[in-house]
Amino acid sequence: MLDVRNISVYYGAAPALWDISIRVAPGELVCVVGPNGAGKTTLINAVAGLNRLRSGSIVFDGRDLSRTPSHLFCGAGIAIVPEGRRLFDQMTVLENLELGSFIAAAKARRRESLALVLSLFPALEAKLKDPAGSLSGGQQQMVAIGRALMARPGLLLLDEPSLGLAPLIVADMFRAIRSINEQGTSVLLVEQNVAMAMGLAQRAYVMEEGRIVAEGKASELLQRPEIQKAYLGIDAS
Fold it and tell me: Hey, is 38 helix, strand or coil?
């Protein structure tokens, strides 16, 4: 489904990603973890078409998107939930959700998509007419994920969905992400909560300083002493 091949991204003259290759198979949930400044957001924004590539390619469903304008990525089947949610605070929850379904194929299934979103996040049903800015942080994250799902993506990109949320809300959010994946949507998850992300994902990539330094089955990576020490505070030596 997604095949990112040897991409590099620069901010001006400064390299942000170095020769990155990742893949996401159909129906797979893959996470990317690493410390602050590792390049995780730069990577996921590149996959969403928001960062121009210096080199390498992004192929999705057999189509090379490397030089495709960013506004066409959603129509190609890729939707992103950005870090910080970026909702339109003065618009209602329903209006924010409907913004995700303006491409023709998604618009034709808007009612069905809304029902799916409300089944995942039933707390939003009573809030549909409320301004999005009046919601709690957790509810706003639900709206942001729901907005992306309204586009009927084949691949959902999630950038730090647990950021700033209470632990109980994070657990609910991750259950919803698992459900989204189980219903057939491929997911690429960028997350600092390493234990929860790797507990959810089938495969994982570890980033440091703009490079991939480890990859493999998430359950196996989580057992590696250097991963436990660096990200979980567990020193098995």
Answer: coil
Looking at the chain, the number of H-run helices and the number of E-run strands are 10, 10
CA-to-CA dists, residue 198 to 35, 43, 85, 211, 212, angstroms: 15, 18, 22, 19, 16
Q: Are strands 29-33 and 186-190 parallel, antiparallel or unpaired?
A: parallel
> Could you tell me if 171 and 201 are in contact, meaning their C-beta atoms sit under 8 angstroms apart?
no
Token duo for residue 151: 């586009």
- 195-199 CB contacts, 8 Å cutoff, 24+ apart: 195/222, 195/231, 195/232, 196/162, 196/170, 197/31, 197/33, 198/31, 198/33, 198/222
What does the pLDDT profile of the chain (237 residues) look like in tens digits? 999 999 999 999 999 999 999 999 999 999 999 988 999 999 999 999 999 999 999 999 999 999 999 999 999 999 999 998 899 999 999 999 999 999 999 999 999 999 999 999 999 999 999 999 999 999 999 999 999 999 999 999 999 999 889 998 999 999 999 999 999 999 999 998 898 999 999 999 999 999 999 999 999 999 998 888 887 766 655
CA distance 51 to 134: 31
Tell me the CA distances in angstroms from 99 to 114, 201, 237, one per residue in order.
Answer: 12, 29, 51
Q: Domain extents for the chain?
A: 85-152
| pTM beyond 0.90, yes or no | yes
Is residue 2 within 8 Å of 13, Cβ to Cβ?
no
Count of positions (residues) in the chain:
237
